[in-house]
Each structure stands twice: as C-alpha cells, then as structure tokens.
Amino acid sequence: MITLITGGSGSGKSAYAEKYICHVSNEKGYKEKYYIATMQVFDDEGQRKIDRHRRLRAGKGFITIEQPRDIQNAVSKLQSESSLKTGRSALLECMSNLVANEMFPPVDASGIQAAEAEKEALDATEKMKDYETAQISHVSKKVLKEVSILSKNVAELVIVTNNVFEDGVCYDQSTMNYIKAMGIVNRGLAAMAESVVEVVAGIPVAVK
C-alpha cells in the first residue's frame, strides 16, 4: 500500500508522516520500519535539516537507508529477505530531493561524464531534439518506475513530497524544468497511491 503525504515547506508533513507510519507499523505488527533518506548535504542549512529529522526519528525504531538517487537500489539494502513485503514498512523522504538529485547530478569529473552519458542515452531513447524536454520525461519516468519497484518490496510505503507549485514566482529555466518534473511525479504518485493526504499548518487533510 502506498500513502502519499504532501504539503508546503514547514507544513508539518514530515512529523505527520513519521507519526502515521509508526502507528500503522505498530498496528499491523511490521517487524522492520525503514526510513529512506534522499537528502544530500551541501551547506549548513541542509545539515541542520538532517539533524532535525534525525531528532524527530530518534527512539522510534527506524532503520535508516541513505539513497539520494536510484531509489530502486534501496531494495537491496532491506535487511531481511525472509520477511519480504509482509513484515516491513518504509518512509521515503522526500521526493523533492530525489527528483532534484536525479535531474542535477554531481559535477565532479565522474559526474560530468555520467551526465554526458545520460544525455546521450536520453537523445537515443527518447528521440527528442529538445534535451530539456527529454530530461523531464526521463527523470519522471525513472523515478515513478523505481518507486513502484520499491513499493512491491514493502507492505506499507509512505512517501513525503513537496508542494512547490503555488508561490507564483518566475524561476530560471532549469528550475522550471524541475518544477515540471515534480508535477509529473506527484501526479503519478497520486495515481499509484491508495491514500493521499495534504498537511496544512500541521493538520492532515484527506485528498484521496
């Protein structure tokens, strides 16, 4: 089962997601409860966010998996093969970081080579002249496919995503491409999910 939890920055969606998955896991007796973290640290603010989330999770029995890209690879890091999908739950946080990491890979020498290889693959597979359009399509399809694979390996998957569409600000083209990809991913996740909840000022509102 997939539950999608969305909300703006500071809405309380993370705290609600953790409370929700802890309640469901305890109620259904899941033996393993995973926290799949997608955020990469680039500055002090990012580190403070990670530290805050770690404090929120402390003592709640989460097994943490760091997976900033290629989310399907988290499947191989699930500890118990014997429990399969019946004995474990996972909280994936969050989609905004995951999509950003997929769209904007590292820029060191290996990262540049990886990005160039990915561009060539996009041009070949998508058969599009517009690389940016191809990138949006490629990233959104990749993320949705890999989340679907992850969901088939846990009994309960709770996904946190960001509402990044309502500030009315005109951004540069790369950011607008990211927002477009987020829109596609969020719509796809909402279609896949059995339940969608928007958190507004700390209050969960059922959408689906």
UniProtKB/TrEMBL annotation:
<keyword id="KW-0418">Kinase</keyword>
<feature type="binding site">
    <location>
        <position position="93"/>
    </location>
    <ligand>
        <name>GTP</name>
    </ligand>
</feature>
<feature type="binding site">
    <location>
        <position position="66"/>
    </location>
    <ligand>
        <name>GTP</name>
    </ligand>
</feature>
<comment type="pathway">
    <text>Cofactor biosynthesis; adenosylcobalamin biosynthesis; adenosylcobalamin from cob(II)yrinate a,c-diamide: step 6/7.</text>
</comment>
<dbReference type="GO" id="GO:0005525">
    <property type="term" value="F:GTP binding"/>
</dbReference>
<keyword id="KW-0547">Nucleotide-binding</keyword>
<dbReference type="GO" id="GO:0008820">
    <property type="term" value="F:cobinamide phosphate guanylyltransferase activity"/>
</dbReference>
<keyword id="KW-0169">Cobalamin biosynthesis</keyword>
<feature type="active site" description="GMP-histidine intermediate">
    <location>
        <position position="53"/>
    </location>
</feature>
<dbReference type="GO" id="GO:0043752">
    <property type="term" value="F:adenosylcobinamide kinase activity"/>
</dbReference>
<dbReference type="InterPro" id="IPR027417">
    <property type="entry name" value="P-loop_NTPase"/>
</dbReference>
<keyword id="KW-0342">GTP-binding</keyword>
<dbReference type="GO" id="GO:0009236">
    <property type="term" value="P:cobalamin biosynthetic process"/>
</dbReference>
<dbReference type="Pfam" id="PF02283">
    <property type="entry name" value="CobU"/>
</dbReference>
<comment type="pathway">
    <text>Cofactor biosynthesis; adenosylcobalamin biosynthesis; adenosylcobalamin from cob(II)yrinate a,c-diamide: step 5/7.</text>
</comment>
<dbReference type="GO" id="GO:0005524">
    <property type="term" value="F:ATP binding"/>
</dbReference>
<keyword id="KW-0067">ATP-binding</keyword>
<protein>
    <recommendedName>
        <fullName>Adenosylcobinamide kinase</fullName>
        <ecNumber>2.7.1.156</ecNumber>
        <ecNumber>2.7.7.62</ecNumber>
    </recommendedName>
</protein>
<keyword id="KW-0808">Transferase</keyword>
<comment type="similarity">
    <text>Belongs to the CobU/CobP family.</text>
</comment>
<feature type="binding site">
    <location>
        <begin position="54"/>
        <end position="57"/>
    </location>
    <ligand>
        <name>GTP</name>
    </ligand>
</feature>
<feature type="binding site">
    <location>
        <begin position="7"/>
        <end position="14"/>
    </location>
    <ligand>
        <name>GTP</name>
    </ligand>
</feature>
<dbReference type="InterPro" id="IPR003203">
    <property type="entry name" value="CobU/CobP"/>
</dbReference>
<comment type="function">
    <text>Catalyzes ATP-dependent phosphorylation of adenosylcobinamide and addition of GMP to adenosylcobinamide phosphate.</text>
</comment>
